[in-house]
């Protein structure tokens, strides 16, 4: 059963997955689709046609503009903005107010398990990899690899994080370990791969 507060504005053709909660003053626009077990905080906005995976949390006053696509288990912090206009203008070169037909929207894609910190801004079109973390207040202007920890304006990678969200530790810069779960990762060519995943790939190649 879903919990949808009376003051929330949910479009009739929006799809809300079972077990989801939509808090006060949130707005879910037409054709948006949320997976099971999602939580949308007070005053948050989900644009038309946006896709949100299961067990995702969109915190208070976050703005998720179409055509954003969020994976499973994504965390969107308070007042985060996912933009959708590369060259924003209110009016055309002739001075007329722009309508939907006067521009092409572009979206932000966020992989499974990734987290976007409070008041961060993600400038579309970009992709944020699975289990990455964007620090609070960051401005993301380019793609973020899986498991990356990025911060600053513009955002730059300052480390790696595991599935528990904790920064990974290393002794040699190539092998990384999660201090909470003990899961180990290998860095190669600017990307991080879990040893478990690499083991499965090697097994498949050998079989």
What does this entry look like structurally?
With 207 residues, the protein is mainly beta. The chain has 1 helix and 26 strands. It has 2 domains: 3-161, Hexapeptide repeat proteins (UDP N-Acetylglucosamine Acyltransferase, domain 1), CATH 2.160.10; 162-207, no CATH class. It is 6% helix and 31% strand. It has a 9-stranded mixed β-sheet with strand order 1-4-7-10-13-16-19-21-22, with no helix packed on it. Strand 25 and strand 26 form a beta hairpin. The longest helix has 12 residues, at 195-206. The termini are far apart. Mean pLDDT is 93; it is low at 198-203.
Task: Give the secondary structure arrangement, pairings included.
Elements (H helix, E strand, L loop, with lengths): L2 E2 L4 E2 L4 E2 L4 E2 L4 E2 L4 E2 L4 E2 L4 E2 L4 E2 L4 E2 L4 E2 L4 E2 L4 E2 L4 E2 L25 E3 L4 E2 L4 E2 L3 E3 L4 E2 L4 E2 L7 E4 L4 E5 L8 E2 L4 E3 L6 E5 L2 E4 H12 L1
Parallel strand pairs: 1-4, 2-5, 3-6, 4-7, 5-8, 6-9, 7-10, 8-11, 9-12, 10-13, 11-14, 12-15, 13-16, 14-17, 15-18, 16-19, 17-20, 19-21
Antiparallel strand pairs: 21-22, 23-24, 24-25, 25-26
């Amino acid at each position: 059963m879903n919990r949808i507060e009376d003051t929330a504005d949910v479009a009739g053709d929006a799809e809300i997955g079972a077990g989801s909660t939509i808090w006060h003053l949130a707005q879910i626009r037409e054709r948006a689709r949320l997976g099971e077990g999602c939580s949308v905080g007070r005053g948050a906005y989900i644009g038309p046609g946006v896709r949100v995976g299961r067990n995702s949390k969109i915190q208070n006053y976050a703005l998720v503009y179409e055509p954003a696509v969020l994976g499973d288990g994504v965390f969107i912090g308070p007042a985060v903005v996912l933009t959708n206009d590369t060259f924003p203008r209110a009016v055309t070169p002739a001075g007329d107010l722009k309508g939907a037909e006067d521009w092409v929207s572009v979206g932000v894609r966020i992989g499974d398990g990734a987290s976007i910190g409070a008041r961060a801004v993600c400038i579309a079109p970009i992709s944020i990899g699975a289990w990455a973390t964007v620090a609070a207040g960051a401005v993301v202007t380019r793609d973020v690899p899986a498991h990356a920890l990025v911060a600053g304006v513009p955002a730059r990678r300052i480390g790696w994080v595991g599935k528990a969200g904790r920064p990974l530790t290393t002794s040699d810069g190539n092998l990384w370990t999660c201090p909470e779960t003990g899961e180990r990762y290998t860095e190669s060519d600017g990307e991080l791969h879990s040893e478990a995943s690499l083991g499965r790939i090697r097994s498949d190649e050998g079989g």
